[in-house]
Automatic annotation (TrEMBL):
HAMAP family: CtaG
Purpose of the protein: Exerts its effect at some terminal stage of cytochrome c oxidase synthesis, probably by being involved in the insertion of the copper B into subunit I.
UniProt keyword annotations, A-Z: Cell inner membrane, Cell membrane, Copper, Membrane, Signal, Signal-anchor, Transmembrane, Transmembrane helix
Segments in the Cytoplasmic topological domain: 1-6
Gene name, Swiss-Prot/TrEMBL: ctaG
Entry-linked PANTHER family: CYTOCHROME C OXIDASE ASSEMBLY PROTEIN COX11, MITOCHONDRIAL-RELATED, CYTOCHROME C OXIDASE ASSEMBLY PROTEIN COX11-RELATED
Name of the protein: Cytochrome c oxidase assembly protein CtaG
Family (UniProt): Belongs to the COX11/CtaG family.
Organism: Bosea eneae
Length: 192
């Protein structure tokens, strides 16, 4: 094999590696999000369509945290800051969202569950998260979160002493269905 042929093969292999790595870098975030949703990793609650029908006598305190990014002129709060939830029983809690600014604003909520390990057992049936919401000045919206704690939590020895779970939401300004943050100095917005 000639030197020119080996060089050509090396260039092609390196080019293929660069293309493959670029493709993987674009796929990394969606693949990581999918992994978190499927496994409950990093406190990501599971998504369900209905309760399992099984219950337990165990009671877990569920606290509700509501935050708003500084760039979004909204007030955001849970109707109740905490509840006592029976494992396996469906619960509904409402959040109140008010646009306190003088102009229409669009926001999107992200969430997580703490402690992280409980995310695999915190199952949301209905949620306003990752849904773009536009509120007019002074407009208020009540949004429900319907969830249950999966009875399978009883089989996890690491969570046997778990007494409380915190569901935390943060509303960010959004554009085209993606959260954005104000960048410093120039007033432009960039994706989070």
């Amino acid at each position: 094999m000639s030197t020119a042929s080996r060089n050509r093969r090396t260039v092609l292999a390196c080019s293929a590696a660069v293309i493959a790595m670029t493709g993987l870098s674009f796929a990394a975030v969606p693949l990581y999000n999918l992994f978190c949703k499927v496994t409950g990793f990093a406190g990501t609650p599971m998504i369900g369509t209905a309760a399992t029908g099984k219950t337990s006598d165990r009671i877990v305190q569920v606290a509700f945290d509501a935050n708003v990014a500084p760039a979004l002129g909204w007030r955001f709060e849970a109707e109740r800051t905490q509840i006592q939830a029976q494992v396996g029983v469906t619960q509904t809690v409402f959040y109140k969202i008010t646009n306190t600014s003088s102009r229409p604003m669009t926001g999107i909520a992200t969430y997580n569950v703490q402690p992280n390990q409980s995310g695999a057992y915190f199952v949301k049936i209905q949620c306003f998260c990752f849904t773009e919401t536009t509120l007019q000045p002074g407009e208020t919206l009540e949004a429900p979160v319907v969830f249950y704690i999966d009875p399978e939590i009883e089989l996890n020895r690491e969570l046997a002493s778990l007494k409380s779970i915190t569901l935390s939401y943060t509303y960010f300004p959004s554009k085209n269905g993606q959260p954005v943050a104000e960048s410093k100095g120039d007033g432009n917005q960039s994706k989070l």
